[in-house]
TrEMBL record:
Organism: Marinobacter salinus
TM stretches of this protein: 6-27, 39-61, 81-102, 114-130, 172-193, 224-243, 258-285, 297-316
Chief localization: membrane
Locations listed in the record: Cell inner membrane
Cellular component GO terms, alphabetical: plasma membrane
Protein name in the entry: Branched-chain amino acid ABC transporter permease
Keywords: Cell membrane, Membrane, Transmembrane, Transmembrane helix
Record lineage: Bacteria, Pseudomonadati, Pseudomonadota, Gammaproteobacteria, Pseudomonadales
Domain of life: Bacteria
């Protein structure tokens, strides 16, 4: 069973890598690459959030706050104090992880809507701080962020780079880099899920009481996954800040937190590749519906509502179940015909 899962996990990563490598063939201008790069960064963020929500069963309505903290930390450190980007990303992730641990220990004792309200309050507090500290963050006007400096190699959407002897545009280089980060994020999440930590998280999701009875330190594992998901958000927020070149407190807003949690639910909680699909769909829908102008929001909401009604388990788990049933029926027909 374990070997079968490992094979499926490897196949999933290979399929995702092939899709990411082939996608540039369908991208015709910098705007398409910009959208695809944003998708990859946000998809990696929701992969981390899915560890908390889908596997540990702990809700977070303020997760954009950690995304925003990572974005602003690297923006301030690199732009104001001249830090190299990589140390800023790493230190930012450590700081955000520590903050998540400090706030997570008390609020993760709560359950249900009490936990939802607590995480919502954390997100609001972070957004308010980013808005009000004008001298440091630029306030509502935001702040510029330097290009990403990777050990002396500056990654910018407007540059040109040589890769394996080929000259590529900066927006393609950014897309490839974000795709690599997404693959690493998925690889780490998949390995964590099948580790003893992942099994403990699933037991917490199933029943905290039963988990405690068999010796699982539920408080420890809930805090751990909260920190891991916050570190995911911080790192992706930092990359997003360098990619965009400018950030505002909107990156830590309540609306963005709702978008992130909706991506997880839409794609399928507990499905790593499902939440990636949810991120892609939710980022693409506004572009597809843009021509409907004032009806865009109504149609967007209607599509999400209908999806949740008819696909309550999420897009990918539902589609996978449908395909599996059809495949099983075909096998049964063949077996019946052979007999």
């Amino acid at each position: 069973m374990l070997n079968r899962f490992l094979q499926l996990r490897l196949r999933g990563l290979i399929v995702l890598a092939i899709i990411l490598l082939c996608l540039p063939a369908f991208l015709s201008n910098p705007f398409h690459y910009d959208l695809a790069t944003q998708m990859a960064i946000i998809a990696a963020t929701v992969v981390g959030l899915n560890l908390l929500v889908g596997f540990a069963g702990q809700i977070s309505l303020g997760h954009a706050g950690f995304f925003g903290l990572g974005a602003y930390f690297t923006g301030i450190m690199t732009g104001t104090y001249g830090w190299p980007a990589v140390p800023a990303l790493i230190v930012g992730a450590i700081v955000v992880g520590f903050i998540a641990w400090v706030v997570g220990r008390p609020i993760l004792r709560l359950k249900g809507h009490y936990l939802s309200m607590a995480t919502l309050a954390v997100g609001f507090i972070i957004a308010i701080i980013l808005n009000n500290e004008r001298a440091i963050t630029g306030g509502p006007d935001g702040m510029p962020v330097p290009a990403l400096d990777l050990f002396g190699w500056e990654l910018s959407s407007f540059g040109q780079y040589s890769l394996f002897g080929l000259e590529i545009e900066g927006f393609l280089a950014w897309y490839l880099f974000a795709s690599l980060i997404l693959l690493l994020a998925v690889w780490f999440a998949q390995n964590l899920i099948e580790s003893p930590i992942g099994r403990a998280l699933r037991s917490v999701h199933g029943s905290e009481v039963a988990a405690r009875v068999v010796g699982v330190d539920t408080a420890k594992y809930k805090s751990l996954v909260f920190v891991i998901s916050a570190v995911y958000a911080s790192l992706m927020g930092s990359l997003y800040a360098h990619f965009q070149g400018f950030i505002t407190p909107a990156v830590a807003s309540f609306e963005f937190s709702i978008v992130l949690i909706t991506m997880v639910v839409l794609g399928g909680m507990g499905s790593t590749f499902g939440v990636i699909l949810g991120a892609v769909v939710l980022k693409l829908l506004p572009q597809v519906l843009a021509d409907f102008q004032e009806l865009e929001t109504v149609m967007f909401g209607a599509i999400l509502m209908l999806t949740m009604i008819f696909m309550p388990k999420g897009l990918l788990p539902t589609l996978t179940a449908v395909v599996s049933k059809k495949f099983e029926k075909k096998l049964e027909k063949k077996a019946g015909g052979a007999s």
